[in-house]
Specification:
The structure is a single chain. The protein has about 350 residues and is an alpha/beta fold. Strand 1, helix 1 and strand 2 form a beta-alpha-beta unit. The relative contact order is 0.16. The model has no long low-confidence stretch (mean pLDDT about 95).
Length: about 350
């Protein structure tokens, strides 16, 4: 069976990757409809010799669509999701609009695939850093029982969209030429710098992005008592996020067993040979399906603790790939009317 698929936000970085991944992974697409704002309507997008004309997104755009992947931001998701569901379309949403809704499943297919069975028309995709962190945490949770963790995220500029990539490139070129560096996307220079500020600050001093690691981790893992503290840092890397994690577990840990658990998990790839300088890095995990996990060692502060490092492509596993995997899951389980 093949399906009519829509992409809302087709002109963005994630939208472009959705088109690519749907084709590369041979998802059964009978018809593809690309939706965006009025200013992009009428333009065309071409992939491997085939072109599609972009349509303006309206409440009537979802008629006859089986699945629509939303990747246009929370306001657009809030504006159109209900209309899409009313049209009989399943929404896979990349924004944060519905992640906290108890009626909306928050799904990482390698972790909680059964959650899609309870959907009522909308399925949420997790935050990029949460999804990547869980590729390392979940197999260890299965082995030892996760209790709490501390995370520092090193987030690539692609997480800010095309503007972040352009700003890093332009600032790097300007620095090399001895010219003044201009900044628009970030509050500070990003080239050759680190900015410990992603999203808006809350009263407790944490940013909204940092709190997503706690709330979304609890929901995906089904651990209501999970304790998390997180610091998000923007780094001058073009693509792929990295995360340093120290985690405490219920049961005694073993580095050998931890490596075995990671190596046997579908969503992760073990890259852990420090003596040969082998560990996951953003350059190696851009446009790569699994996330890399390495630097696994006993944590010297936490009881039953492990410290490790995870790297993954946030445009893929943190957004487009995870959304396509959810669509594949719906297909495999016969949950799309077609």
């Amino acid at each position: 069976m093949a399906y009519s698929i829509g992409i809302l936000g087709a002109t963005g970085a994630v939208g472009q990757e959705l088109i690519r991944l749907l084709h590369e992974r041979n998802f059964p697409v009978a018809d593809l409809r690309l939706l965006a704002s009025a200013r992009s309507a009428g333009k065309s997008i071409t992939y491997e010799g085939r072109s599609w004309t972009i349509e303006e997104a309206t409440e009537g755009s979802f008629k006859d669509l089986d699945i629509c992947i939303f990747s246009a931001g929370g306001s657009q998701s809030e504006a159109f999701a209900k209309a899409a569901v009313a049209s009989g379309c399943i929404v896979i949403d990349n924004s944060s609009a519905f992640r906290g809704d108890p009626e909306v499943p928050l799904v990482v297919p390698e972790i909680n695939p059964e959650a899609v069975e309870a959907h009522k028309g909308i399925i949420a995709n997790p935050n990029c850093s949460t999804a990547i962190a869980l590729m390392g945490l979940y197999p260890l949770h299965q082995a030892f029982g996760l209790k709490r963790f501390i995370a520092s995220t090193y987030r690539a500029v692609s997480g800010s969209g095309a503007g972040g990539i352009i700003e890093l490139e332009q600032q790097t070129r300007a620095w090399a030429a001895g010219e003044a560096l201009q900044k628009e996307v970030y509050p500070h220079q990003i080239a050759f710098n680190l900015i410990p500020h992603v999203d808006s600050f809350q009263e407790d001093g944490y940013t909204r992005e940092e709190m997503k690691m706690l709330h979304e981790g609890r929901k995906i893992l089904g651990l209501d008592e999970l304790v998390v503290t997180c610091t998000c840092v923007r780094v001058p890397v073009f693509r792929a996020h990295s995360i340093s994690i120290s985690a405490e577990f219920e049961r005694p840990v073993s580095v050998a067993e931890a490596r075995e658990a990671i190596a046997g998990f579908e969503g992760a790839e073990l890259v852990d040979d420090p003596e040969k300088a082998r560990y996951p890095m953003p350059l190696d995990y851009s446009e790569v399906v699994p996330c890399g996990v390495g630097r696994i060692r006993r944590d010297q502060v936490l009881a039953n603790g492990l410290a490790f490092w995870v790297t993954g492509d946030q445009i893929w596993k943190g957004a487009a790939l995870n959304a396509v995997q959810i669509a594949e899951l719906l297909h495999e389980r016969g949950l799309v009317k077609g």
